[in-house]
From TrEMBL:
SUPFAM superfamilies: Fibronectin type III (SSF49265). It comes from Elysia chlorotica (Eastern emerald elysia). It holds the Pfam family fn3. This is Fibronectin type-III domain-containing protein. Residues 158-272, 375-463 form the Fibronectin type-III domain. Gene3D superfamilies: Immunoglobulins, Low-density Lipoprotein Receptor. The lineage of its organism: Eukaryota, Metazoa, Spiralia, Lophotrochozoa, Mollusca. One of its GO terms (cellular component) is membrane. Keywords: Disulfide bond.
Amino acid sequence: CKPRSEAAANVGHNLCGNTQVDVNCGKDQFSCPSKQSCLSFTQVCNRHNDCNNLDESGCDCGSGTEGTPAISEVTNTSVTWVLDSAIFSNFSYALVIEGLDAANLTWLRHPAPVKGEKSVTVGNLKPAQQYNFVFNYQSSRCLTEPVSVHLEDGLPSAPQALKISTNQEYASDDSPVYTVQVTWKAPVAPRGTVLFYVIYYQQIYNNGTAATNVFEEKEAAEDVVGASSQQFSDTLVEHIETGRTYHFWIAAVTDAGVGQPSEKQTINISPGPEKSLQPKVKVMSESILSVMWHAQPEVKGYRVTVATEEPSEPDVIAVPERLIHLPGSVDNVKIQDLCPGSTVHITLAARYGDGEVYETHPKDTLRNVMSGVLPTVNITNLEMNGATSVLLSYKATQGGNPDQQYIIYYTDNLAVTAKNVTVSDTTHALSDLKACEHYFVWVRPSYLSCPATRLKLFTTQEDLNAPPKDVKAQLLRHKDHYSVNLTWAASCGQTSLNTRYSIKMKRGNEGGDFTVQSTGVVFEAMPRLTYSFRIRVDVPGARLSDPVSVTIPSLSGPINLIMLRETGHKVVVRWDWPLKSNWPEFKVSLMCRLSKSKVHPSWISDSDTL
């Protein structure tokens, strides 16, 4: 028998055994004859002689149970049971400790499922451990033996989709330096927070045997982009020697330890190009030059990188690099819209295989100073000429020509692509801006590679007639139809809850207006039609928002087509299958166009990911 202070596993009514309860025992606990200790209901019915086989001899636990509970799911920290609240009253569980019998374990009581619920999850358990569960029924029977459950390992599963490729760069002495780019997806079951990843690599000899040494590199989890299953993590492994073959694999690490390793991938580090492509530059005008090189028959494709050298100044949007991809059959390219007087760096790279790796010889980078005078533009004045309109003045301080054009960029969020307008005058009004917003504006000459002005900041004012902000039309999918969720945000002067909005809707060739007193509306949509919406405050003189549109797909065609950029120059295409179809198997034709070229259709079966 156990003292009352340790008899904590009170799991139900004392429906079998001696019903006399000593005044010193807890409710529904079994009293030993000495009246000096108490047993829980579980301990009485476990068929151990906890009371020297005296009072327990009258305990009739029956010859079996009324249906052993079923396990729905076992993880590394929880067990989910399928329990019928009409059968089970409650249950207890205990961590199994080697050398201790069931009566001496620390039992914890867990309430039964709420009426109507069919499952109960016991959480906060220890990974890779064994637990005993004992159940109490609403009837007079109790479980004769504990149910033993062994939890899963607490270590993370293996990282997914491991890919490796070779990168070649050059040191200051023009000697080649090889690195391996390792790309992977996060584990499907991390079982905790991933602290870092361990990248293993091992040399493989020509006879297929592996070298004794296994090298490791650690990559902190916060330094990679593996937060979601649709994103890839990547890193570079250095100190790789050419002419050798390596095995690569990877594992995730949590507080519990090193997880399961991924499948091994093999790579052979092949030497890159031994000689230069000998590129040359021919200047054709102040803004146009031609690059020529010696074509090599083993090259599958070329990549030309055009970068503009510019001074490092604060609050200036840098000129983006230009990438030009060419087939292996060409030996020249004409580059236009360069900035007169600018310094241009041109790098020629070659692709020798069918992959996405381009290799560059150190002599294949050229530097050229364009003729002419570098155009320089300054913003001279910003003047608000309305609540949501600003008059911008600017001028060229050097360079340019009498018919010089300018590109004005403006945005309320530098993280997204800015709007732009090309003008010939040195003053221009930006109108129909959002009310009460901070805007950035900058100007550059119409040549795309010319330096821009410094960023200027201005703030628009309150405007009761301003159009609503952030108008969005979201397509919603239902069992047998589609609907459109149209949402928007009130402009800063339209904060009243009684503000009414007028929605101008166009459906196919039809149109109509309706008003609502909210900042959102959901309505059923007809398939195979395009809906267009413009919204304004329902007062005279209020301005309409920019139009947003959504095309309702057919009920029998794939929907929600999205494209996700992966590493290199790869795109993942994802879609949802049709709502209703009797087809036993789907087949989808994918067509991709790039400029005037065309990728032939491909048929995909039994997959929703390409």
